[in-house]
Design goal:
alpha+beta; Butyryl-Coa Dehydrogenase, subunit A, domain 1; Butyryl-CoA Dehydrogenase, subunit A, domain 2; Butyryl-CoA Dehydrogenase, subunit A, domain 3; 3 domains; 4-stranded mixed β-sheet; about 15% strand; binds flavin-adenine dinucleotide
Length: about 375
Amino acid sequence: MRCNIFTQEHEIFRRTVKNFVEKEIKPYATEWDEKEEFPRELFKRLGELGFLGIKYPEKYGGAGLDFTYETVFIEEMARGGSLGMLLSILVQTDMATPAIYHFGTEEQKEKFLKPALSGEKIFAIGITEPGAGSDVAAIKTTAKREGDYYIVNGSKTFITNGAIADYITLAVKTAPEKGHRGISLLIFDTGTEGFSVGKHIKKMGNWASNTAELFFDNCRVPVENRIGGENMGFYYIMKGFETERLSGAVMAQAAAEYALEIALKYVKEREAFGKKIIDLQAIRHRLVDLMTEVEVSKRFLYYVIDKYVSGEDTLTEITMAKLWIGEMAIRVANEALQFLGGYGYTREYPIERILRDVRLYTIGGGTSEIMREILSKRLLS
Ligand SMILES: Cc1cc2nc3c(=O)[nH]c(=O)nc-3n(C[C@H](O)[C@H](O)[C@H](O)COP(=O)(O)OP(=O)(O)OC[C@H]3O[C@@H](n4cnc5c(N)ncnc54)[C@H](O)[C@@H]3O)c2cc1C
């Protein structure tokens, strides 16, 4: 088992991302969070730098690298202080576009993937509905075939980038009577007549990312915008969850490390009872417990990434990583805040934001309960 997945090349790439984050993310992170948005131009800027297409082939404007480089990108971006912005970006790179790359036609890759990787177009992924979240098979949005078009009716909720997206990778029922075998994926143009955005959803954390309700009223979508085979959508969605959950685990791991770094810096400076806080034994023991937890997680995560990149079946390990690291990040961020006392609870330090942001990680991209369901089926059957 290889635990260090990075080479010299990765370190060079890491420096590039780090510099970018220092100059173009960190100074604005708080402002974006408070405003509950970040500039649309950031997608273009990330595209220009090649950060949106790291693991995609060069012929679509990507860098032709693998997920280990994506890991470096996520790790450094997470230290920028705006996990909400990063969530929006990862929806574009790791959640909405992989299905087009893996199952789409060459024409779709030219027309939709390329502008997504250059940052000219913004993507969302629309699966969740008011009545169907964990139970993807229960979605009710329909797409009825009429000649060369599908007529889409229904609604979606909790959609990241929903109000700013040019396109949505949209899950619809093309054969409602067939349950999960009746789902298809469409590339939906948000300029289509009958489409509307509902209320902006206010959230506990990840404020910089847009989250919206979406409505579809007799929207006409060309059949040529269907990704892959009709009624194959459930399989594509499940396959897509692998990358989504892996990048989510990387983000959670990086957030936990960042929270711990902030706490460590603080306890080295703050004094109480005539000593630096770090010299208090109760604090030292708790800190090393957390450092151990974070390091063990990281080594497992790197093992999973290594296996994933090699092309082996990694579903079990990715599910474990999403479950464990998502829960670990919440524990670590919560404890890290405690080390800062009252200051940790204020908005003067980024730790309260991290805690609010990481709370999503046992819910978004599949809840912890669903991860346990998947693992039960794979490990106990
Ligand atoms: C900030 C944010 C951004 C999001 N972005 C997107 C997006 O871009 N696109 C998108 O499609 N969705 C998105 N989601 C939706 C997210 O994926 C769902 O919230 C998630 O899958 C859970 O679905 P639900 O909220 O309907 O909860 P439910 O499925 O209703 O679950 C409620 C509770 O019941 C539990 N539960 C459900 N089934 C089981 C079971 N079988 N066994 C045990 N417990 C169970 C759940 O774990 C949970 O605790 C986003 C959500 C949030 C909060």
